[in-house]
Amino acid sequence: MSTVPNIVTGRVTNRTNSQRRTPNWLKVTYAFLLAVVAIVGLSLIFGPKGDALPACKFEDGSGQSVCYWDADTQGNGKGHDVINVNGKSFVRK
């Protein structure tokens, strides 16, 4: 048991250990938030980068099994970005 002075009234209040303990639900909440922050931080640091796919040599991706066509910087600068995988094209708007 500890004594805590009350500044307003001048009385000394006795507190038991059970009154000072952090509730279990709050500990779980803190642990969950810490885990979320850690996972997000690690995924930002070690996650895949935007240039994970090689650039396509040609717009249709011929001669490459997997590639990325960036319409803004390749070709005439118009159109949509395309991901080519084994001859199939996936348009990215």
Question: What's this entry about, in short?
Answer:
With 93 residues, the chain is α+β, with helices and mostly antiparallel strands. The chain has helices spanning 17-20, 24-46, and strands spanning 2-5, 12-15, 66-69, 81-85, 88-92.
Describe the structure.
The chain has 93 residues and is an alpha+beta fold. The chain folds into two domains: 2-46; 50-93, no CATH class. Helices cover 29% and strands 24% of the residues. The protein has helices at 17-20, 24-46, and strands at 2-5, 12-15, 66-69, 81-85, 88-92. The strands form two sheets. Strands 3-4-5 form a three-stranded antiparallel sheet, with no helix packed on it. It has a two-stranded antiparallel sheet with strand order 1-2. The protein is rod-shaped and about 85 Å long. The model has no long low-confidence stretch (mean pLDDT 79).
Q: What class would the helix/strand composition place it in?
A: alpha+beta
The percentage of residues in β strands lies in: 15-25%
Number of strands: 5
Major sheet attributes = 3 strands, antiparallel
Low-confidence segments, given as residue ranges, are none
**How many DSSP helices?**
2
When the domains are counted, the total is 2
What is the end-to-end distance? 66 Å
Query: What percentage of residues falls in helices of 4 or more residues?
Result: 25-40%
Mean pLDDT: 79
Q: What is the 3D shape?
A: rod-shaped
List the strand order in the largest sheet: 3-4-5
Question: What is the succession of H and E elements?
Answer: EEHHEEE
Describe the secondary structure blueprint for this structure.
Elements: E1 2-5, E2 12-15, H1 17-20, H2 24-46, E3 66-69, E4 81-85, E5 88-92
Antiparallel strand pairs: 1-2, 3-4, 4-5
